[in-house]
C-alpha cells in the first residue's frame, strides 16, 4: 500500500504524540529517519533516493542484513507476504525494514519483531496525515507481532476514542440537518375529534340514573313518608332500564324527630328525580344525592358537607369573571415574593370573582356554615352540600366549552402618485459698459418650481456665523444649513431634479438667461398583507402593519461659546456650538393598526366584533422655538432652534358588528388624495396667447391612496381546525398537528 509523501514533512511531530513511548535518540533516531525516507522514496517510485538513503543507513549499520535485502529488492518487483492476526489471514504490505531500537536490544531478534520500529514510524506518519484507518491497521499489526508494545496500544486507544467522538458528532449533525428539512413540512390532519364539552365532569352516575328511570304512574294517598320512600326504592329497581348495576337506587329517610308526615300526590310519566322533587317539596323535606344513596331529611336540618375538585380551563375562568388576568400586574408589592406572589394574588382575586358569580347563580355560601371555595389557578376546590356541588358542576359544564375565534385581516392598499411640471425662469441683465459705468440692472421673473413652493420651509434655515471686516482682512460670512429629517412615503415634489435646459444669450445690450424646467414623474405602490391570529372569545387582539417612527419628545439646551478677539487683528474669535441633545424618545406606528375584540354569542354561530381600524400617516415636521444669538468681539452667531416634532394624519373608525361564523366584513372609505398645484406667471406677458406660455410656470403633484380592510371571523376548536365549517377533505373539529415531534434523541414522525 503506497502512502503520499507526508512521512518526511510530519516527522518532527512524532515525539509529542506518544508520551508513554519516548522517541529514540542518537544513532537509533538517524537509522529510523533514513529508513523512513528510504521506504517513502521506494513507495513513490523514486528508487534513486531510496538507494541513496539505504546506502547511508548501511554505512551506519554495516552488518544489517535487512538493509542489504532492501537494496537488493530495488532491482526486482516487491513480494507479498501473508501474516495471521487474531485468527484471520491478512495480506501484508511490502516487506518493511527493521531497525534496532534501544528498548529492544535485550530481546532476541525475530523476523516479525524486526518490523516493529518501521511499522511504528509508518503508523505515526499515517496518523499525522489524517488517515486514521490506515494508522489503526499498522498499529494492529504491531500488536500482533508484539502484544506488549505500549506505543501501539496508546495509539489504538486514541484512534478508538476519536472515532467514537467523530461518529457521534457526525450522527448528531446529520440528525439535526434532517430535523431542519422536516421542519419545512406544514401541519396536517392527523386526528379528528368529535365535538363535545371538555371542561368539568358530568353529573354523578346516581343522579344520571334518577333522570333515566321513568315511572309510569305514582299514586300516594294519606301514606306516611317512610312508606313512600320504601315504595319508591322498591319500584326503582323494577323500572330501571339503564343497564347499570346494581339495579335501582337506595332511598333513605333520616328524620331524628320521627315526624313522618303523610303524602298525598298523584304523578304520571315522570323520571324518578322529578317524583322526589314533588314529594319532598309537598312535605317540606329535602333530599341530597350522595355517592351510593339518596338521603331524605327535614328541610331545617343541615346536610353533610363534601369536598370536590373541579378542573377549569382559562377560557372558563374568563367567561365566569368577565375579564382576563393582566399580564403585567403591578398592583402588588414588588418585594413581596416575586412572580409567585403575583400569581397567587391573581388566583385569589379570580377565586373571589368566581365565588361571587356562583353566589348570584344560586349557590349559597353564606347560608351554609362551613362551605368554602378556593381557586389555585387551574381548579376549584369546593366544600359544599351535595346539592350545591351538583349546581356548581352544572354551571361549570355550561361554561366549560372553549370558545375562540380565528381572525384573518386582509389589508389591500393601492397608492399612485404623479407629477407634471413645466415652467421657464427668466433672468435679464443690462450691461453696465453701455451705460458709461452705470450700475448693472437685473430683471428676473419670480416663477417658482413646485418643489420650492411646497417644500418644508423650516428645512431652509441655516447656522449663520458672521464677523466684520478688519484692517488686516475681510470679514467672515459662514452659513451651515440645518435641515429637517426626511421620511419616505410623502408626496413627490421633484426635489433634486435638474433643469431641462439653461439657455444663455445676448439680445442687444441685454444678457438673457432662461432656465427651462420640465418634469413628468409617476410612481405607485401596492400593499397586500393578510395576518391571521386566534384569540379567546371576549379578549382583545391587535394587528399592526406599519413602520415604527422613533422621535424625541424634548431636547437639551443649545450651548454656544464665542471667544474674544480684537478688531485690530490681535486675536481670533473661536466659536463652539453644541446642539441640543434629543431626550425622552417615544415611538409611533406609521401605517395600519387594527384592534378587534371578538365575542361568540350564545347561539354558537354568531360572532360580535368590536373593531377599531386606525391609519396613521406622517405629514412632516414642525420646528418649535426661536433662534439663539451669541455676540462676542464683533462675531455674531445665529443658531436656529432645530427642535423638530413630527405631524401625523390619523384616519380612525370604531364600530361594533355581529356576523356569522365564516363571514367576511369589508371596511372601506379610508381613501385619501393629496393634490398640490402651482401656477405662477409674469403679469401681462403671461396672458399673451402662445407666447405667454414662456412666462408661466405650472405644476401639479397628486397622490392617491385607497385602503380596504377585510376581516373574516371563524370559530375554531382547540385543535386548530374549524369548529363547524366543513371544507374539502377536512371535517369539522379537526385536530392539526406538526408531522414530527422533536425528542431528546431526535425528530420522531407523528403517527396518524
Give a brief description.
The chain is an alpha+beta fold. The chain is built from 13 helices and 32 strands. Helices cover 24% and strands 37% of the residues.
Report on the architecture of this protein.
This protein has 752 residues and is α+β, with helices and mostly antiparallel strands. It is 24% helix and 37% strand. The chain has 13 helices and 32 strands. The strands form ten sheets. Strands 12, 13, 16, 17, 18, 28 and 29 form a seven-stranded antiparallel sheet that branches. Strands 19, 22, 23, 26 and 27 form a five-stranded antiparallel sheet that branches. A four-stranded antiparallel sheet has the order 15-14-25-24, with no helix packed on it. The longest helix has 34 residues, at 150-183. The protein is flat, with a radius of gyration of 49 Å.
Question: Which characteristics define this entry?
Answer:
about 750 residues; alpha+beta; 7-stranded antiparallel beta sheet; 32 strands
Share of helix among residues? 10-25%
Give the beta-strand count. Answer: 32
Number of helices: 13
Kindly name the structural category.
alpha+beta
What proportion strand?
35-45%
Uncertain spans: 1-25, 78-109, 195-200, 325-337, 567-572
User: What is the average of the pLDDT values?
Assistant: 75
